[in-house]
Amino acid sequence: MATRPPILRAGDTVGIVTLGSPRDEATINNRIAFLERLGFNVVVGRYVYSWSGYVAATPEQRASDLMSMFENPEVRAIIPTRGGVGVADIIQYLDYDVISRNPKIITGYSDITVLLNVLYIAANLITFHSLLLIDFRETTPAYNFNQFFTATSTLTSPRRLENPPEIPQVSRIPGDVTGPIVGGNLTSFVDTLGTPFEVDTTGRILFIEETHEPVSHVYRMITHLERAGKFRDCAGIIIGECTGCEDAYGKSYEDLINEVLIPIGKPLMTNLASGHGMYKMAIPIGAVTNLNTYNNTLTVLEPTVSL
After folding, report:
1. What is the reported pTM?
2. Enzyme catalytic residues
3. For residue 238, what is the domain's CATH number?
4. CB contact at 8 A, 288 and 179
5. What is the pLDDT of residues 168-223, one digit of tens each?
């Protein structure tokens, strides 16, 4: 069983880091102010405002910011400013023994997917495919905050993961399977293949989502995962939205699901609202989860934080 980080409460300290691409100072400060209005204390990493081309700082510098948050006994949750690119650069510079001794809530999506899965695999830590700092603003749907705080600030168990009512979850292949859930952004997940941090999907439920990629590119990445045995070994498959993904060669995202994923034959649920879309379900990476496509339910079977 994976380690559950300590629960997040109002008044706790949240650490802000930039682990991939940079973000402008005004946006970062605006989102920090929102967190403070929610009642949190905020500490900011040394390189949060750095800007070095398509990444914020060197891999060593970005990794040192993350480690400083894990080592700070006051910090209860770590929130990256954004994803972008370059998060995979830092994973070789992290001390996973220190992280496993100092479990914290860490959240994000997009390129942060790499880190979320690596921390589960290498430090046995439950992480959260959920909000980034850029999402802490007035225009974020209440659903997203409810999802985040239910996952990180309550011991609710079991907990159904359900889309907003207007977005149906769609079961495609019948089955009833249970296992830890892994995955996230497809592009970022594929980046771990062939590295020491490649995620073993054996007996696990694999979740993937994507954004702003032509369907032909999504096809290429999904078939890469298939050749790597990730679908063969997993217990079940969950497909999220592909926001802004354009048709290619007369094929749509729906065609890709029908022609590539359904023939795999594993229990399959599609159209989960998580990641880059407007609505962001909080998916606890590493938590034991039941996927039941007979009754179209996805249920986290354990608390995802601890007292």
Report:
1. 0.97
2. 110, 209, 276
3. 3.50.30.60
4. yes
5. 999 999 999 999 999 999 999 998 999 999 999 999 999 999 999 999 999 999 99
